[in-house]
Amino acid sequence: MRLITVILQKLAIEMGASVLIEPESELIGHITFKNGKTTVFNNTRLNINGFGSAHLAQDKGFSNYFLHQLGYKVTEGKTFFNEKICAKIANPRNVDDGWDYAQELGLPVIVKPLNLSLGILVTKVYDKSEYYEVAARIFNINSGLIVERFYSGNDFRILVLDNEIIAAYQRIPLSVIGDGKSTILKLLEIKREQLIKTGEKILIDLEDFRIIQKLQKQHLTFDSILAKDTLVYLLDNANLSTGGDSIDFTENLHPDFQQLAIKITKDMGLRLAGVDILTTDITQPLVDYTLLEINSAPGLAHYASLGEKQIQKVENLYRKILQALEKE
User: 168 - beta bridge partners?
Assistant: First the structure.
């Protein structure tokens, strides 16, 4: 059973509630509290956020617009659509317009789906052929894409519930460390097997075109053998669901970043949010930052896998959520 499902089931039973889990996916559940109130969950999606706010946060284009209007330093970017959508809107922006805009921003740029999660198809694009390749892949499964300016810095997620910071951690892209004898492919297979043992859905695709491109830019292949302790990054996006690693900064998060994350969450009309920020160091006073996005159903299984302390933080979060849902 998935870790988050296990935690929710455990906490609900501790509260005297009854729980039904859909047996095939083991992700969807129904909870009946002692007072007769009910709620449902689908993986990390619970009824803690209002529908409108959660839906807005899911659409990266719309949420970026409002966050920018509210004065936050968001990524500079625009949305572009497939031909079907372009035929319906007053000011169509198609895939070719997207390439023109990418050149205006200056390569490389980030190209990503408009409203998908888990880092799916988020790609750092260096030239025209790469742009059209990833655009075609996105339009195969999604009606829109975003072209964004590329920003350097460290990727952090700050988890907020109401006025409280629950956790803060750095997200590091998928990587492998050489042992002096194994190929990159072997190292990656070992890492994937280790992650799968956690019981969570890990999206490390050994045929991911982004991994192949990343290796090529470093003059490497899957058959390359890395010297001992040599670190090689295999993706540019830092999503933990694609095999990234994390470092816990909760105890050292500077108050400036605490206040920023709480205010962003409130301004988006959310109670629970994962606020993703690009900056140099979240343990120091806030000097500069870029708000990457805000997630209304942040996944925490990978954070919980860091250790017992992190598991307790995740349990405390979901306990508070269930207690709030019981009272509503």
Answer: 158
How many angstroms separate the CA atoms of 209 and 240, rounded?
Answer: 18
Judge if pTM exceeds 0.85. yes
| Contact between residue 274 and residue 258 where contact means Cβ atoms under 8 Å apart | no
The average pLDDT across 220-247 equals 93
The token pair at 282 is 């979240």
Write down the H helix ranges in the chain. 3-14, 51-58, 60-69, 83-86, 95-105, 128-141, 184-196, 209-217, 255-267, 301-304, 308-327
Structure tokens at 144: 């829109």
Q: Give the integer Cα–Cα distance in Å for 125 and 75.
A: 16
- Angle (CA) 8-237-209 rounded to 5° is 110
**Counting beta carbons within 10 angstroms of the beta carbon of residue 147, is it exposed (0 to 12), middle (13 to 18) or buried (19 or more)?**
buried
Burial tier of 268 (Cβ tally within 10 Å: 0-12, 13-18, 19+): buried
Residue 6: exposed, middle, or buried by beta-carbon count in 10 A (0-12, 13-18, 19+)?
Answer: middle
How far is residue 274's CA from residue 242's CA, in Å, rounded to a whole number? 17
pLDDT given at position 99: 98
